[in-house]
Specification:
alpha/beta; Rossmann fold; globular; 8-stranded mixed β-sheet
Length: about 350
């Protein structure tokens, strides 16, 4: 009787402490859980490959991003230019044709798992942000792993922030107390890292951060990273490969700037808007970051999208849920910068 009581007590205590069972970590069938407005196009999506043992596959994915750059949209109400910072860092600048003498500014950091991507992949979104907020947007074309592992990309992004907020260097009419940082996926993780670095080094002041489904935790220990294994989308296998290319195999002593989930102190960071889908491998680390910001006294608005996979609002951009999601985070950014 005592033995049965002890077993029951241990099980109840484990549940109360939030200990997950093995069942919760089993892979999910995304086809049965996907948002109805995404399903028709989702089931047609092909599988992709990202592996440390297949550099050719990574090269092909990078070429796809270059194709996006060749087919980028245009908007006559926004001036777009490529500026060079410190001789070799390209920063793509979006400046609305506004009568305002000074404008708020956004440092936008593209996604791609630290291993691929370029600013032009987000051209349509950045044109919209520049025009509707309105604000100046600066998007660095940062160095990528594995050729340039951590901290190359963070250094590039932080240098772009310093350049953006220095009117003598950038020649941009930026309102100094209205500067935000944002990004998607690895770009969201870098946005958080930039905010941490700016706080710690007393760098340019940030009034807002908007990490969208950010890549924050190199440990790959959450339920969601184990639940999402579908190779049509960013998943556990891709994440393991990307972190290894970014940090190497030794992740025992990793800087919080490389993996912001490891940051012990989040106080003093700017207010945040965080969005993540329920079928995103970064769901749990995004929610955990939001909770820890709140515990540190930082205002946070957190949106979770039921049935949304990683990057859904950009991959299936015409679905009503995608249009709504983009409109919500653009409006959140606009409110913060107005």
């Amino acid at each position: 009787m005592i033995k049965k009581f002890l077993i029951a007590f241990i099980l109840i205590a484990a549940l109360a402490a939030g200990v997950s069972s093995a069942e919760e970590f089993k892979p999910w069938d995304l086809n049965t859980m996907i948002h109805p407005e995404l399903k028709e196009q989702f089931i047609k999506m092909p599988e992709i490959t990202i592996s440390t043992k297949n550099p050719e596959a990574l090269d092909n994915l990078r070429k796809n991003f270059a194709i996006l750059a060749d087919n980028r949209p245009k908007d006559d109400s926004v001036e777009v230019s490529d500026e060079v910072v410190n001789k070799d860092l390209r920063v793509r600048v979006y400046r609305p044709k506004s009568e305002a003498k000074e404008l708020p500014a956004l440092l936008w950091i593209h996604g791609g798992g630290h291993i691929m991507g370029l600013p032009e992949q987000d051209e349509a979104l950045l044109l919209e942000i520049a025009k509707t907020v309105p604000c100046i947007v600066a998007a660095p074309d940062y160095d990528l792993a594995p050729e340039f592992p951590y901290p190359a990309d963070l250094n590039d992004c932080f240098e772009a922030l310093k350049w953006l907020t220095d009117s003598e260097r950038s020649k941009l009419p930026v309102i100094k107390n209205k500067v935000a940082v944002a990004g998607q996926s690895a770009g969201g993780g870098l946005a958080v890292a930039v905010a941490l670095k700016a706080r710690d080094e007393k760098g340019p002041a940030l009034c807002f951060q908007m990490p969208l489904y950010p890549m924050l935790d190199c440990r790959n220990i959450t339920p969601s990273i184990n639940q999402i294994t579908d190779h049509r989308v960013w998943c556990k296998d891709f994440n393991l490969a990307a972190w290894e290319m970014y940090l190497g195999k030794n992740t025992k002593e990793v800087s919080a700037y490389a993996s912001p989930a490891l940051a012990k102190d989040l106080s003093g960071l700017p207010p945040a808007y965080i969005m993540v889908g329920s079928l995103d491998p970064f769901r749990d680390e995004s929610i955990n970051y939001a909770q820890r910001l709140l515990q540190a006294g930082v205002p946070v608005e957190l949106h979770t999208v039921p049935g949304g996979f990683h990057g859904f609002e950009g991959i299936i951009e015409d679905a009503p849920v995608s249009v709504k999601t983009r409109a919500e985070y653009v409006e959140a950014l606009a409110k913060a910068l107005r």
